[in-house]
Design a protein that fits this description.
Two copies of one chain form a homodimer. Helices cover 41% and strands 22% of the residues of chain A. With 365 residues, chain A is α/β, with parallel strands linked by helices. Chain A has two domains: 1-105 and 273-365, Isopropylmalate Dehydrogenase, CATH 3.40.718.10; 120-260, Isopropylmalate Dehydrogenase, CATH 3.40.718. A ten-stranded mixed β-sheet of chain A has the order 2-1-3-12-11-4-5-10-8-9, with helices on both faces. In chain A, strands 6-7 form a two-stranded antiparallel ribbon. A two-stranded parallel sheet of chain A has the order 13-14. In chain A, helix 1 (15-32) packs parallel to helix 12 (354-364) and helix 10 (304-318) runs antiparallel to helix 11 (321-336). The first copy, chain A, is globular. The two termini of chain A are 22 Å apart. At the A-B interface, strand 7, helix 7, helix 8 and helix 9 of A face strand 7, helix 7, helix 8 and helix 9 of B. Strand 7 of chain A pairs antiparallel with strand 7 of chain B, so a sheet runs across the interface. The structure holds 3-isopropylmalic acid (2 copies). Chains A, B: Substrate binds at residues 97, 107, 135, 226.
Chain lengths: 365, 365
């Protein structure tokens, strides 16, 4: 098959370490599964600030645009915490989302059987939880204009942002959620505050229209965001796909991730629109965890989320379902065999570091 | 002592039932503790829509303004779900907050020892949790202008809201949080998305300034809202006071409530500014739970949250600390004695309805 162009952006903190373990998996796949990738590497986040003075240099954006898929590590750290708003490492990921039109963030929150006990929730509340949060990522209050901090005539400061959605921005991400639900348990819970926000009112209306016109076979439930946070905590099994805007999706996807108790295990994908002529779509894959500066460089980080992000990449960007499953199964088996990194350590298991975990997965493959 | 003017607004659903049990407590206090209240009653929510065509009639606002404290039930129900945005029952509470200047919503999330097992979280994760969420309630994206759903020239709909804070709106609610922390475990966790929102950037700056200038003895921690949702779920005991804006405070206070597993037990207070001449402040007290239309009228609702809201009222509006503690202790004892309403039912306990629970509390008093 034609070469698959992959851009690797390790970023900061534990990003480079965990990405190193994915490299082993890629090597294995190249040799044993005859998958040939054309791999480029780029700078993002603090690493890019240090080298090039910008958290997301034009060069990185250009590379990302010409790649078939981007594998992203994580960005940020205390070193860059005092930089002004416009120069922070987080802008790396924000700009990539925006410039590549990556509007749909897919965040699975799955409780694997061997890790049921890692959760802070009771075993019978979380056993079998399998939620997919679909978060809109290029609109809403994180990007809306006008925004700023200004001085009022009387000297007081006023900070403001604009929460805004046009109907087709809502419809396209809703379609991603409904499509996913069809391959899962056929239910979408759409989340907003339609009772107090005008954008929420439009969100609810448009999602309902899309469902009625195009997905009458999928069950749609509307839920207020505050209630959804409650329900996630108390009865998470009721959810299949959760659909939310940039802000509610951000908070609720992190909550869904947290209830699994194994953040170091969770990948995500952010997808753009399908190009009607080429059939391709931009896509970026990244673990849910951050750059974890406190443990960076110590060789103790869990590489699984980054590896599982690569599995998502195989599935979504290259249609390599079988290879994706192979990798996912290998990771599950390694866990079932008792290996644990520090973040998911349990009594009776064997505590290992980043590279032993990575090696074990490759051996299992 | 002079008469204490109390406005009772039972509202919809289970509101009137659970308020009935508070009436017994008030009667008991009048007779046994010589507390004389001057009690007025008013309409709000769906009940007010049905009777007077508005979810918050001017008459109700006027009564609330002249009362020393408002005891609120809950509003809403399927009957009014199809009403347009501007006429919904929820506007009852929104308008009261706004017109009375009730800017600080205090929401305790406490795990009582006899109810540890009611939580969906593991016992050792939640035992001893005692969090106070302070939510700003008259500003931010639930009120900011401009807002609306408009048609673009090309016919597409655009929904928008404005997230906005002026610095003194932030400072005054921060002071409420710091004052509370001083009486508790001396720590405030202030929550925003300063990494992506301009209003969040101002929020973080102002809270920091207030702490530095006026509360150098209180520990201040800044946390992103998504991370806070995670931390609440995985390690709730780290929190003392959580301070958030209208939106983040809404979602996170509900999450904090949910992790206790006993929504039917949780009260809240919403306070206005202290009037410099009279020393008084407007205040409204309400349970965290909603109107629960599915169980309304069945006599099975848990009256404890409404009773505990009354305890908060005694404490905050009338300085009756001893009477508040009396009531809280009576409720704890009834629970320790094994009585449970359906929502907090556990094996081995005695399941009772609304009025048996209310009677038991009065007997315990
Ligand atoms: C780093 C930050 C800008 C980002 C966001 O809020 O979108 C992160 O929290 C995420 O969830 O991907
Ligand atoms: C009823 C609704 C408008 C309200 C809010 O969002 O403020 C409620 O959710 C609350 O938390 O008190």
């Amino acid at each position: 098959p034609a070469n698959k162009k992959l851009l690797v952006l390790p970023g900061d903190g534990i990003g480079p370490e965990v990405m190193g373990e994915v490299r082993r998996v890629i090597d294995w796949m190249a040799h044993r599964r005859s998958l040939s990738f054309e791999i480029d590497e780029g700078l993002v986040g603090g690493a890019a600030i240090d080298a090039l003075g910008s958290p997301c240099p034009d060069e990185t954006v250009a590379k990302a645009k010409s790649a078939d898929a981007v594998l992203f590590g994580s960005v940020g750290g205390p070193k860059w915490d005092s930089l002004p708003f416009e120069q922070r490492p987080e802008l790396g990921i924000l700009r990539l989302r925006k410039d590549l039109g990556l509007f749909a963030n897919l965040r699975p929150a799955v409780v694997l059987d061997p890790l049921v006990e890692a959760s802070s929730l009771k075993a019978d509340v979380v056993r079998g939880v399998d939620i997919m949060v679909v978060r809109e990522t290029v609109g809403g209050v994180y990007f809306g204009e006008p925004r700023g901090v200004e001085k009022l005539p009387d000297g007081r400061r006023r900070g403001f942002d604009t929460q805004v959605y046009v109907e087709d921005e809502i419809a396209r991400v809703a379609r991603v959620a409904f499509d996913l639900a069809r391959k899962r348990r056929n239910k979408v819970t759409s989340v907003e505050k339609a009772n107090v926000m005008q954008s929420g009112r439009l969100w609810r209306a448009v999602v309902g229209e899309v469902q009625k016109a195009e997905y009458p076979d999928v069950q749609l439930e509307n839920m207020y965001a505050d209630n959804c946070a409650m329900q996630l905590c108390s009865r998470p099994k009721q959810f299949d796909v959760i659909l939310g805007d940039n802000l509610f999706g951000d908070v609720l996807s992190d909550l869904a991730a947290a209830l699994t108790g194994s953040l170091g295990m969770l990948p995500s994908a952010t997808l753009g629109a399908v190009d009607p002529t080429t059939g391709k779509r931009h896509a970026l894959y990244e673990p849910i965890h951050g750059s974890a500066p406190d443990i960076a460089g110590k060789g103790v980080a869990n590489p699984c989320a980054q590896m599982l992000s690569f599995a998502m990449l195989l599935r979504w960007s290259f249609g390599l379902e079988e290879d994706a499953r192979l990798l996912e199964t290998a990771i599950e088996k390694v866990l079932a065999g008792g290996l644990r990194t520090a973040d998911i350590m349990q009594a009776g298991m064997a505590r290992v570091g980043t590279s032993v975990m990575g090696e074990a997965v490759v051996r299992e493959l």
